[in-house]
Amino acid sequence: MAMKSLQPSLDLLVIGGASLDTYHLANGQTVRSPGGAGLYTALAAACSGARAGMFAPRPDPMPEPLKAAAERIAWQGPIVPPDQLPRFEIAHYGSGRAALLNASWGGEMLITPENFPGDQNAASIVHIAALRTAERQLSFAKALQMRRAEFGRRSAPVGTQSSFRVPHSEFRISAGTYGKICASEPDTVRELISLCDFFFMNENEANLLFGSADQVRAMPGQVIFVTLAERGALVIQGDHVARVPGHPANEFDPTGAGDTLCGATLAHLAHGEHPVVAAQAAVLLSAEMIGAVGPARLLSDRPAPAPPIDPRVRVDDGQVQRVAQLIARLPEVQPFRFVGDFFPYVDDPGALDWFLAVTLQQFGFWEMTTPPRSSSAAQGKVSGMRRYSQPMIATLDGRSLKGSDYLFAAYRRMIDRDGGFFGPDRQAALTAAELAAALRADDGSNPMPAFDLHLELAQSYGRDMLSLGVTPHDIVEQANRTESPRAAFLSLLDHISGYKEDPLRKKAMLLALILEQRPERFLRPAPGEDEPPVIDYHLMRSCLRTGLVEVTAGDLRSKVIGREELSAAEERAVRFAAYQALQRVQALSGRSMGAVDWFFFNARRRCPEMTEPDCANCAIDSVCAHRKELFQPVRRTTFY
Fold first, then answer.
1. Strand order across the beta sheet in which 30-35 lies
2. Residue 442, by phi and psi: left (phi above 0), alpha (psi -120 to 50) or beta?
């Protein structure tokens, strides 16, 4: 029997110092402020709602400039006199360019693995901030790896060892760097990266280590963040790269911007957020932080900023309350058990492999028309816009099935023919002919509108699973060993293709609901866990038509009504608003997200894409805004 995992006392423990610094700013001003990579990182995490600590020389008595910081974080480490605090002099030249003019490292030499606290379960994440040498950072990483291996041996049942880190169970290792050691110790920094679950660098450091930021790739199970100054950041999950845009800022003192982004990101990761969502929130805090001297923003009583809803859309809070109050009373708002003709038999030994392989394929069941070329075809112009054409409907075994039902039925047929088809090894080696045969309709056609994407995701899913050395059973078992199984499960899927790419985790959360609600109860429900919405285009259409979400920008509204193809930013605006709206409906109604999601997903039957809505038979007709002309965002994506 597995040993019950212990709840860590901290979300983040930062290894790295505090300092008293002098900054020469780009506007000609010279200012003095508390500083240090460790301090900025820990304070940013605390400002973002994390229980943060710092291992660093602790001055006694505490200098006045550091007293506020010491009150906000759990500061532990060797006691030193105040004159042994490190002191740095830094010149800023604008656009993220800076130079270290003078450095007095003081008691920083006391930050060693030998002096480090011995409780290996003290934090969910241990971050090694930039130290004087990369070699010392590396020694910490090696020592932490040894402690983690020992902790894993004591806490995991025999036969479940894996190098794949389990969020919320075994602590994860993070580190950052800086330009000087990237230039002088590049091989050591690269070795350090190889030992970390998370790593942070800026664009200049990426250039020094890898040639360019575009060439940075993470190992399986690892996430690397590359900050791009005012342009935002790159989030690299294995071979998948996402770009997080920057946020407008009034730059006054850019010191610690990268460390602030690091600390805020780690805080959100410790709380189970997707890496891209974590970085998005961190970019906002970093943009605010550089508008004041030193860490003043991080020491204020204001909470960290929350990602805003795009001004082109808004959530109607009054309508949210009306819909939630009605849903709370409806007996038919119940979770679905995911059993029946489209699903494996209860207790089928191949069910877990089947559900992980099929749920990642739940996307893209619709056709788009491409407008005819105009008389200006020679100049490459087209007339009109690409538009939604029709949903995917095909006949399988004599039944006319739509979209996700068709996919479930085709894969259900396949498990009877060849259960091994769904194993990671077979998915990794899948050929176009094999997948086309599995999805073939009665008339011999392949009805999938985005077949190439389905094949690509199947293969990359299998490769990721094989690279991580895990099976679906391993992932579920590892998640179930934690205090928060759903959160751990979602975080584990952040490293697996088909699931990791979507910051809002539609398919990942759908899979979690399936595994919780199936009669086998594959995934153990835990009271009080967050219940993220499962936002696909059916739920977005429901949010728009019921009035939960209003499109306020006329041009975007016209495109939604006209079923025209949207840009990525336009689609994201509508989807994030729908996410917020359904999250509030679930919380106010008191119903589980599984129940709320199934209710709104089934609205596709009474409020479909191509025919007049059947309002008379809709349970929420009395509170619906009846905006029948609105449609879901039209954009081809593998997210839903």
1. 30-35, 19-24, 87-94, 97-104
2. alpha
Q: How many domains does the chain have?
A: 3
217 with 106, same domain: the answer is yes
Same structural domain, 490 and 594: no
Query: Any residues with CB less than 8 A from the CB of 319 and at least 6 apart, and which?
Result: 546, 547, 548, 623, 625
- Residue 528: burial class (beta carbons within 10 Å; 0-12, 13-18, 19+): exposed
pLDDT tens track for 169-182: 689 999 999 999 99
Task: Give the bridge partners for 363, in sequence order.
Answer: none
Count the neighbouring beta carbons within 10 Å of the beta carbon of residue 307: 13
Q: What is the pLDDT of residue 159?
A: 47
Could you tell me which of 640, 220, 269, 205 has the C-alpha nearest to residue 469?
A: 220
Dist CA 213 CA 201 (whole Å)? 10
Distance CA 529, CA 312 (A): 31
Does 468 map to a domain?
Answer: yes
Look at residue 480 and tell me whether its pLDDT is greater than 50: yes
- Read off the pTM: 0.93
Identify whether residues 498 and 550 lie together within a single domain: no
CA distances 615 to 135, 326, 597, 618, 632, Å, are: 68, 16, 19, 5, 18
Question: Could you tell me which of 34, 44, 95, 93 has the C-alpha nearest to residue 73?
Answer: 44
pLDDT of residue 321 exceeding 80? yes
Which residues have C-beta within 8 Å of that of residue 372, sequence separation ≥ 6? 382, 383
Q: H or E element: which one contains 575?
A: helix 568-589
